[in-house]
TrEMBL record:
Belongs to the UPF0225 family. Residues 42-136 form the YchJ-like middle NTF2-like domain. It comes from Micromonospora avicenniae. Gene3D superfamilies: 3.10.450.50. This is UPF0225 protein SAMN05444858_111152.
């Protein structure tokens, strides 16, 4: 019986693949960050977790992972926009020992039957020992 339970769990994990594109399940990838059980170890990991938060509609996490200096007082997501895929184009710094980092990405979405893409270079900083989103240059 243990094997059957393991197979069922693996099948459930595949169904819940993380929107960030890591290939891991959401409960084992971005889920712990969204629930506040872990912090992103790198700027890219934070970028991926923020994309996943947009995909699952977690505005609380988006606001918590935003630098207090640039964070809006509230955030309203478009309920008609479905985030499909994240492509990391480039990263500069943002590693385990860095205090700043930049992640360039393309985020693909579907809105009202049309597919679109948002391209951006996001800047991240460490604040109180954890990575937070600072701001972005739209492309």
């Amino acid at each position: 019986m243990a094997k059957r339970g393991t197979r069922r769990h693996a099948a459930e994990d595949r169904e819940l693949s993380c929107p960030c594109g890591s290939g891991r399940s959401y409960p084992r990838c971005c889920g712990p960050l969204h629930r506040g059980e872990a912090d992103a170890p790198t700027a890219e990991a934070l970028m991926r977790s923020r994309f996943s938060a947009f995909a699952v509609g977690d505005t609380g996490y988006l606001l918590r992972s935003w630098h207090e200096r640039t964070r809006p007082s509230r955030l309203d997501l478009d309920p008609g926009r479905r985030w499909l895929r994240l492509e990391i184009v480039d990263t500069e710094r943002g590693g385990l020992l860095d205090s700043t980092g930049t992640v360039e990405f393309r985020a693909y979405h579907r809105t009202g039957g049309h597919t679109g893409m948002q391209s951006e270079r996001s800047r991240f900083v460490r604040a109180d020992g954890r990575w937070v989103y600072l701001d972005a240059e739209q492309e």
